[in-house]
Amino acid sequence: MDNFMPAIKVLRFTQKQTSIHMIKPIAFSLAFLTSMLFSSAIFANPLVYEGKSGPGKGKHVVFIASDHEYRGEETCPALARILAKRYGFKCTVLFGLDDDGHIKPGSSKIPGTEIVKDADMLFFFIRFLAPDDKTMQPIIDYLDKGGPVAGLRTTTHGFNGLKGKNKKYNYNSRDKSYDWGFGRQVIGETWRPKEGAGHYGSNHKFSTRMFVVPEQKDHPVMRGVKDMHAMAGAYSAVPIEGSVILGKNQVLDSMKPDGKPLNNKPPSPCIWVREYESKSGKKGRVFASTQGASEDIVSEGYRRCILNGVFWCMGMESDIKADMNVDFVGPYQPTTFSFRGGRKNVKPSDLVGFESPLLPEKK
């Protein structure tokens, strides 16, 4: 029995110590668990702008915003607010995030794509993303059923580095059944400079004027559209056969709207619509533009064109009015596009409501 006494004493001591000294670790664990649950809640709740009335009531547009350079994280919520507040759409905006839940331009971590299954339209502003299979699957399912799609700027080369069964969606895929990937097969063009789809003029030095192709002046997407200017440099494009070219660009000799067109850069397609054939056999409408940076949509004419494109994609062309109100909703304060640019330490929850700044400046 004496041999067991030290062990009994140690056990009693440990029990006393546990009652006193384990409080802090337990408290820490609870705090950590609470933090993790709170963090998960942030990741699980996308930004939603709920419209009350208008032609879009009952329609759900899901935006996916994650590009590295052109501030799609500013463009998308600004357009979403207009559609929701002024026309009644429900608009959900999903962002690329970092591990702490801050908006991170170009991140492939995009929580919430499961909401895509309820979308009436999918609106992309993405670049070179490689989401995991779980994130990609709702997007693929949506495309397989032929839902309407819009894509701005770098969405032509939206995916890169996807592996296995999803690699055919990469911008440079040469899969014979899906040549040039999601960009070419859905949006209508990809990034392929050797074939005529790439930068057109000096970005950050030359801005872009856009004009309506005369033959398409009566197309619903161009209803009420007049002057269009973009701060982002032009792209050249050779949209896939069957695309209807609605607008072309002019490379200007300055960053000002009144700049002169460069004679050695003839106009190239910059706005088009098309239909893609889905796995289901259904054809989905597409609106595409090679512009769309956050400063580009300051142009009232160009902003109107994009919003008209959303209506057209959903078969709502009869609701497009030449004098539709396309004014921004709430403070819109776009930043100049650049890699590693944009506002820092902003979470989607900072953009809730119609009056929060897009995007707020954080210290």
Q: What do you see in this structure?
A:
With 363 residues, the protein is α/β, with parallel strands linked by helices. The protein has a domain at 39-194 and 271-351: Rossmann fold (3-Layer(aba) Sandwich), CATH 3.40.50. Helices cover 24% and strands 18% of the residues. The chain is built from six helices and twelve strands. It has helices spanning 5-21, 23-44, 72-87, 133-144, 181-187, 300-313; strands spanning 47-50, 60-66, 90-95, 121-126, 149-152, 199-200, 208-212, 228-230, 234-235, 244-251, 268-277, 283-289. Strands 1-3-2-4-5-12-11-10-7-8 form a ten-stranded mixed sheet. It is globular, with a radius of gyration of 25 Å. The model is unreliable at 1-44 (pLDDT under 50).
List low-confidence stretches. Answer: 1-44
The percent of residues in helical segments reads 10-25%
Summarize the main sheet.
Answer: 10 strands, mixed
CATH architecture of the domain at 39-194 and 271-351: 3-Layer(aba) Sandwich
Q: What is the CATH level 1 assignment of the domain at 39-194 and 271-351? A: Alpha Beta
Q: What is the tally of beta strands?
A: 12
Rg, Cα atoms, Å: 25 Å
Distance between the termini: 67 Å
Beta-strand fraction estimate? 15-25%
**Oligomer state of the chains in this structure:** single chain
Mean pLDDT: 91
Number of helices: 6
Shape: globular
CATH topology of the domain at 39-194 and 271-351: Rossmann fold
Helix vs. strand class: alpha/beta
Report strand order across the widest sheet: 1-3-2-4-5-12-11-10-7-8
